Amino acid sequence: MTKRVLVTGGAGFIGSHMAQRLLALGHDVVILDNESTGSVDNVPAGAAYIKGDVREPADLARAFAQPLDAVFHIAGQASTVRSFDDPLADLAINVGGTVNVTQHCLAHGVPRLLFASSMTAYGHPAGLPVDEETACVPVSYYGITKYAAERYVHATGARTDLARPLHVTSFRMFNVYGPRQRLDNPYQGVMGIFIGNVLREEPVNIFGDGEQSRDFVYIDDVVNAWVTAWQSPAAHGQVFNLGIGQGHSVHAVVQTVAAALGHDPAAWPRRYGPERPGDQRHMTADIGHIRRTLGWEPQVSFAEGVARTIAWARSTN
Ligand SMILES: NC(=O)c1ccc[n+]([C@@H]2O[C@H](COP(=O)([O-])OP(=O)(O)OC[C@H]3O[C@@H](n4cnc5c(N)ncnc54)[C@H](O)[C@@H]3O)[C@@H](O)[C@H]2O)c1
Known about the structure:
By secondary structure, this protein is an alpha/beta fold. It has helices spanning 13-24, 57-63, 80-85, 87-107, 141-157, 190-199, 219-230, 250-260, 288-294, 302-316, and strands spanning 4-8, 28-33, 48-51, 70-73, 112-118, 167-173, 175-177, 204-207, 213-214, 216-218, 238-242, 248-249, 270-273.
């Protein structure tokens, strides 16, 4: 059955893939995006597009003008660095914007809300891989706003005073990568940044010693998880990690990217700078909860995902 879904942030990396899949599944898609880091070029054909801001009730009113079956709330300020440069903007977009979205869901009787949370919620967990039961003590301003927004979403989902409940699900996404990730935005997405650097024959900038590690999850696997969760009552009220359960160091990413683009992996020039505030040392996801609850399994290995991303990057350069 065709459903009508609002995808906030649908002109960005993750949101545009989500919108594309929903359209391919035969649903009607409305996108709301202010193009701060996204681009109208990413908006898939067939989606209704509203240029607007999740902080602005008038813009949300336009996005909620027709009845919606679900909201995929993906719009956000996605950079840890920028959260320290402009904490009030980060707070207004990630927390204020999310509260606005939840309030509009309630006002319009939308039954389902899915939210783009982040592994930065965990801060420096004592043990790895980290599972969803681990206490969240975010150490970056960005992690704080993502976690606060997640709590607003789930506290709203737990309300028993509503005539019509709002069923919510959040995804603590680890490092998502793939086609359409920006190759020219130094604030977001280390995989895209390094691919862009190597394609432009620039040195890579490494903050810290380069041995910090991240769990990279390919965009198609992320989309699979969201779409499966949307359709599954077992996902109501749940928070899921989305990673593949493997850590890759920043050095390893540089080497993989350089080698895949035909260069000597050990020789690619690197510039080192100080660790940045809020940096997490090592992060890997325990994905047992989403495996058990939804049967989700990442399908794309790190090597395959990097190859696909590089093939796309080459085709656009
Ligand atoms: N990429 C990752 O690894 C990752 C990991 C965890 C969580 N997330 C979250 O997923 C979401 C999408 O991230 P992404 O990597 O696709 O980044 P992105 O920057 O490509 O996407 C964010 C989109 O939101 C839009 N946007 C920003 N502020 C807005 C506002 N006030 N009103 C309307 N639209 C606004 C941007 O223009 C952009 O299109 C973000 O909320 C981010 O915090 C991303």
